[in-house]
Design brief:
The chain is built from 6 helices and 15 strands. The chain is α+β, with helices and mostly antiparallel strands.
Length: 231
């Protein structure tokens, strides 16, 4: 197994972050510093990070959490705000969120210690679809605004890719995007004259939020995890 993959499976960091740790000379195998992320190791290897020995690969878990408004999507927060990690049992594992939802957005977010899976789900080239339900302000939603959203709108960091858009009510719509820019849905709606009043993510790839209450979580099944890997 590649050393970077070993670290990701051990819950140290995502694959990309693990590669940086290795190149920075912070990882040793058998007491010798290794700077090649592709260095081959097996389950019996004596791997250490910053001098701390690793016990080996952690059991990998993936939680589906309904993030409430007011909770931040980080492992820890310097301002003392509640985090998504505090809402799931850690089981002694190093958990981190897959992607982000801003503090005022609720809905489906994944929490895991599987760095390889997290990297695949957030890497732009995999284009994992994410669906949101937005309640918006302004006049009643018209065909023009819906068309602009579906074709892509110009933001300050460039045009967005085409999106799937469906009107649910005069001031409510469903939007599916395959990008992951910061506050993208809010900025898209603002750009077409409909500022977001409330936003919830209802789907992530093949997973649906369903009736899970805000603040509640569940473990993904092995079948659900395999469906994520197959994206």
């Amino acid at each position: 197994m590649r050393l970077a993959k070993y670290l990701a499976h051990a819950g140290v960091a995502s694959r990309r972050s693990a590669e940086r740790l290795i190149r920075d000379g912070r990882v040793s195998v058998g007491g010798r510093a290794v700077t090649d992320p592709a260095y081959d190791v097996d389950a019996s290897a004596a791997v250490a990070v910053d001098g701390r020995a690793l016990a080996g690969a952690e059991p990998r878990v993936v939680y589906l959490l309904h993030k409430p408004v007011g909770v931040v999507s980080t492992a820890r927060d310097t301002h003392g705000r509640p985090t998504v990690i505090e809402l799931v049992p850690d089981r002694g594992l190093r958990l981190y969120p897959v992607g982000r939802l801003d503090e005022q957005t609720s809905g489906l977010i994944l929490i895991t210690n599987d760095g390889e899976l997290a990297n695949r789900l957030t890497h732009p080239r995999f284009q994992v679809p994410k669906t949101y339900r937005a309640r918006v302000g302004g006049r009643a939603l018209g065909a023009g605004a819906l068309r602009k959203l579906s074709e892509g709108v110009e933001l300050d960091d460039g045009p967005t890719a085409p999106a799937e858009v469906r009107k649910l009510a005069e001031h409510e719509l469903e939007l599916t995007i395959r990008e992951g820019r910061k506050r993208q849905v809010r900025r898209m709606c603002e750009r077409v004259g409909h500022p977001v009043r409330a936003l919830v993510r209802t789907r992530y790839g093949p997973l649906a939020l369903g009736r899970l209450p805000a603040g509640a979580h569940r473990l993904l099944t092995a079948q659900e995890i395999e469906r994520l890997r197959a994206l």
